[in-house]
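call fold target=NAD(P)-dependent dehydrogenase, short-chain alcohol dehydrogenase family
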Amino acid sequence: MPALQSFGTDYRALVIGSTGALGRAFCAQLRADPGCALVTELSRQSTPALDLADPPSIAAAAQALAGQGPYQLILLATGLLHAPGLAPEKSMSAIEADALQRVFQVNSLGPALVMRHFLPLLDARGALAVLSAKVGSIEDNRLGGWYAYRASKAALNMLLKTAAIEHARQHPQARLLSLHPGTVISPLSQPFRGAAKARPAAQAAAELLRVVDNSTAADSGGFFAYNGERLPW
């Protein structure tokens, strides 16, 4: 993989959610990049550990890594669509408060705290990217369903956009990006019919890194697909 040109050489990267399919792929490709001097991984199993469902762990992890910064690249490669006892809602009658809270904690509330605690560790010309989803686009919603997942990703997009506006006041060259990875071969996509057309995680990671690399400060706060297309809110 060629060096990510927008970061120059000897850049430092942080991958949060490093044990997922895309997280692992990001780490592998960044380690193969001769321009990357350091790849730091965070997950529920790492030391320090970071669990999006445990807000104190987010603050503690950022504090523990403060001495490694600044990072030129921070990737939040996380998301919750289904789990034991949790499935996307097919109708409004399936909405449950506990499920909504669980999905929003991982897809919206936890990432908001990641931005709060980790943006101070981002280089003034660096990039922070979060994994969103096209189904979080309100304008693009034509099928309905998947209430918690759609709404939590729409909330993530708003949180990212708002953070980008504030961050730009002091760091106008930084980039905060919301990225749609498409359907990727992973446990997240496996139960659904679109999984037959899923792309390997390594391919998706390379495409997303290319989007980040090709972005400019003018793109900060934007919502982009893996092919570089700007997506509607």
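return ok
Residues 11-225 form a domain with the Rossmann fold fold (CATH 3.40.50.720). The CA atoms of residues 180 and 225 lie 5 Å apart.
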